[in-house]
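Q: what does this look like with adenosine-5'-triphosphate bound?
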Amino acid sequence: MEYQSFLIKYAEIGIKGKNRHVFEEALVHQIRLALKPVEGRFRVVRTYGRVFVECLSEYDYEEVTEALQHVFGISGICPVKELDMVSPEELARVTADFVLAEYPEGEHTFKMHARRSDKRYPLDSQELNAELGHAVLEASDRFRVDVHEPEILVTVEIREEKIYLYSHVLPGPGGLPVGVGGKCMLLLSGGIDSPVAGYMIAKRGVKIDAVYFNAPPYTSERALQKVIDLASQVSKYTGTIWLHNINFTDIQLYIYEKCPHEELTIIMRRYMMRIAERLARENECLGLITGESIGQVASQTLTALGVTGEVCTLPVFRPLIGFDKEEIVDVSKKIGTFETSILPYEDCCTIFVAKHPVTKPRLDVIKRHEENLSEKIDELVETAIRTDEILICDVNGHRKYEKE
Ligand code: ATP
Ligand code: MG
């Protein structure tokens, strides 16, 4: 089957009224970005209050639908057959052929759904439903009409110049188009959780920047490459991600030298949050995102989360907070990050981790021990931020951002 365009369906909850055009424009923009790397020429248009992707050249069906299935805001994708204006008799014949070709096997119940926006067409929508439905029934005994709960809905739209036929709806990822909700800074480690956390917040229309705390030479080039790969994979959904690679080694060594070892993780996490917040503010992000989940590890007990979050004034979003590991793994497999996440390269946290980390840190105690760092820590934080290396990650890989 040759399709000339795709009708984009989107959920309309919360986007009625004044915000509708903002939503639609963002959706159109995101669809254009998603189709950029796809071979072929496409035009994305808003007409009749809906969004269409028109195919202006040869294209690969799988490639196009795959790209569209990564665009948040799309709830369904209907491949459309377009015809030039024809008589009702001819239309009946084409419609029957279309339905048989779309559903070549098995028995189905169906319902015709004709829409006539060009009122000059000789039959109105009621008459069209009757005529076209009749033609399908005549063409094959595999089909029965069910107007209440049909398996198949066959839509025929008559507009000024053309007629549009569609029936199949491929599922989209849902959510809201990236960008309508502002931007957040994701703390992206090489693990399973944080890429999923970024995906989930982006799904609600939020653009993502990311920060990775790197500890060379304790962590290898491959550990960084893994995080870049994860950012690239997530960018399939979120669009380009600016990944800030922060050299955290000296800060970690200094904490290691000056603070009790069972508090290392928590103090380290507090410095990560502080630096992430600085970067967030410098890059117009409205919040931070982490992959934390209650009780997953010692640093994620409720007490520890409270102590970690205490350093931030921006909101910290933890979309996985109530997820079990298994549920997180399911999402990571679905979005294609799992295989990369489980590669065994060391992370900065695993190297400096204590045997018996505190599970109930006391904020006053932690703050007192952080005072041990007062001599050098501000300077170390400034250096880490100043030497920030920005890697621009997209589906094709990454390139370095050259600061002037
Ligand atoms: P992940 O949560 O990604 O699977 P993890 O479970 O090993 O990795 P934790 O030590 O549980 O990570 O840290 C909790 C959260 O803190 C992570 O989800 C991530 O958001 C952030 N984080 C931890 N380490 C780093 C790092 N090296 N760089 C950036 N963010 C980090
Ligand atoms: Mg985790």
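The two ends are 52 Å apart (CA to CA). The longest strand covers residues 76-84.
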